[in-house]
Amino acid sequence: MTTEEPCVVTMRTGVGCPEVKVTVAMYDVHIPYQRPQIIEAKGLIRNRQEYLYKVFRPYLSDANKDVTCPFPETYL
Fold first, then answer.
1. SS3 content of the chain, % helix, strand, coil (to 5)
2. Distance (Å, rounded) from C-alpha 62 to C-alpha 68?
3. For 37, phi and psi rounded to 5 degrees?
4. At CB < 8 A and 24+ separation, what contacts does 44-51 make?
5. What pTM was computed for the model?
6. Do 58 and 32 meet the contact criterion of CB atoms below 8 Å apart?
């Protein structure tokens, strides 16, 4: 998509195929800009926390271990 053709996408229909221009919106239609709704993360269940702690934590640098895979009880 470009500023010259804001409603047109250039794509290929398959590997080695020529590029095709496809219109994704009509030119006369105004599409209002809206920010997406913020969705809060629910967090991880206890089993997933334990799995990440046991399996992935050993491969992280010491600086990232506590941030990425803390001991599961710290989340509860």
1. 30, 15, 55
2. 10
3. -70, 135
4. 44/75, 46/72, 46/76, 49/75
5. 0.45
6. no
